[in-house]
Amino acid sequence: MMRTTLTLDDDIARRIKGQLKTSGVSFKDLVNDLLRKGLETSSPGKKAGKFKIKPIELGLKEGFSYDNVSELLDQIGEKQL
Fold first, then answer.
1. CA 53 vs CA 13, 47, 50, 69, 71: distances in Å
2. Disulfide engineering: 29 pairs with which of 25, 55, 56, 67, CB 3.0-4.6 Å?
3. Three-state DSSP class for 37?
4. Which is higher by pLDDT, 72 or 28?
5. Where are the alpha helices (DSSP H) in 1-81?
6. Does the predicted TM-score (pTM) go above 0.70?
7. What residue spans define the domains of the chain?
8. Mean of the pLDDT values across residues 50-76?
């Protein structure tokens, strides 16, 4: 076990004091627990869950064609004016 002096920002000290009132644990135990949780969630070795994209058919509006991209862009520009 290592002993050290830790300087806390005012907002962090207030939050810890608030949690001390409701937790019933010592300051040391609470700070160690909070540091453990923070280190576990920021660990670079952890992988995020799988992310899947579900495509949906949007279709192409009537009067538009993918065959000529420059014409399509012109048509889109005209519709937005």
1. 42, 18, 10, 26, 30
2. 25
3. helix
4. 28
5. 10-23, 27-41, 69-80
6. no
7. 10-41
8. 79
